[in-house]
Amino acid sequence: MSRVETATVEGLSGKDLSTEEHNALDILENLPVDQVDRLKNLMNLNTPGVIGLTTLQSFLHLAQEQGFDLSEAGVNRFKDEHKLGNTGAVKGIIGPQTAGVYYQALMDKIIPKVEHTNGQRQIDSAGLHLIEEFEGLARQLPDGRIAAYRDAVGVPTIGYGHTHGVHMGEVITREQAQEFLQQDLRWAEAAVSRLVKVSLTDNQFSALVSFVFNLGAGALARSSLLRDLNAGNYDAAANQFLLWTHAGGRVLPGLVRRRRAERKLFLS
Fold first, then answer.
1. What pTM does this model have?
2. Catalytic residues
3. Is residue 19 part of a domain?
């Protein structure tokens, strides 16, 4: 199994943290960076890939609002309830599997509130096909249906990375996978609608949704792409797509192809 990229912790070394804050930090540190960034988007925090004091406190507040008890007793109870193995040396420990279950349980409560918004502008078919191509459809069966699988941290997943309400053994059609993807795109659609202050064609909007879904709303919020776009310089904004091709300090061919496709869609 390849190593999962996690977020960077900044400014928390040596700080006096409560038990609840320590447990919240353990959850965030053990999640893949894309899941941390999705949580940060939900909390309107704009620096992707980084866990600082504001992120930690905002996440703890979000978890407590949704009824999660991150005290020592609360973590032990959660692990027992979800059969996560909570005896001996692992009692009370939050590792990648436990963090993944916390993430999914939290998203199960939040998603219906923030992603199923009536009347919200949605991605068009060209943008949806672009995202489908680059996200990839995992675990296709010989009959064309799609089976659930466990992701890198053990969370049941299906289709184009969908996790909300998924259980192992679940099998869906390609059409259902597309519906799940459209549900998962709601937060990215909302972020583009919130951040962009100028008019957009459907293809421009959809290219930006793909960009945000891949990189997070914080990347768009702090980008020259957004500044050029909101200044009405559409051509300059289009060229800015091509700068976002790095991960782990190097250029990735897959990101080069995706940014070129998003730019092409934006200009079409």
1. 0.60
2. 135, 151
3. yes
